[in-house]
Amino acid sequence: MILAYVSLAVLAIATVYSGIVSFRKTEGATASWIFPKAVGWPTRIVVGAFSLALLMSLGLWLGWTGQHSSLRSSRFLIPEGYTGWIRVEFEVQGAPPLSTEGGEYVLRIPADGILRTSSPEQYGWARDHYYYYSAKGVHPIPDSGETPLIWGRINGEASGAAGKRKYEELFVGTAQQFKNQAKE
Amino acid sequence: MLPFFLYFAAGVITGFHVYTLLALTVYGAPFNSLELVSLLGSVGLLIAAFIGLFKPYAAARIAFIACLMTWSFYGPAIANVVRTKFDKHSAVSANPNNRGTQPFALVSR
Question: CA torsion A58→A120→A107→B109, rounded to 10°?
């Protein structure tokens, strides 16, 4: 999130500065540190070389991280027939950590729909999976397509007597059920 | 040197931010053409930074146009965030399946 704010701040400054320089009269204007004239060749070469090296490093780093991303997906195990909001609370002291299976975090939601774990919330992008579980086994819940059953997934942070708590919520049900609960 | 550092920083930071959002299309997020326009604006800022070493006045004009291109994404994004703050319920139901796939989402999971 901080990247968005920094981007906006820098972009706003660059817009104002370039706008002022573009529309100010240059005839008779003296050079200053804020409105400088062209720099000498040695400076151009040094700055240009360092900048290109920096850009190439950034490009290589982006390519490398794209190929070696290790963010784990989450597997939500939801009680068979459950309808309504599900809430996962992270970094809860005394709660068990999330287990992993097949490279995925397993979030086994209890019957009341609230899972508390001592594990920290995962940030990044990964494809999560949703399943109904019962004594008979598990079967997948569609989260996309024509009849998805997963809606309104959000994450946030709430303050209370126990301090700040990070959580994630999602709604399980049909589109109509989700719309109905939104009106309530 | 001020214009160079300013345009360069703006180009790199906004370009990186928009690139990360564009990369989400790999995970099924809808493609937003304004993100592409914004990314081109970031590239324009980088070009302006280097031109600024030779011709500061011309670089400022290029940078100004590039900034406007970049704002084409950030402007609607800010409007969307403000609207979401005032009307959280309607923002969720506008694209209820996944908050991270909103076209103008500034925040991602």
Answer: -40
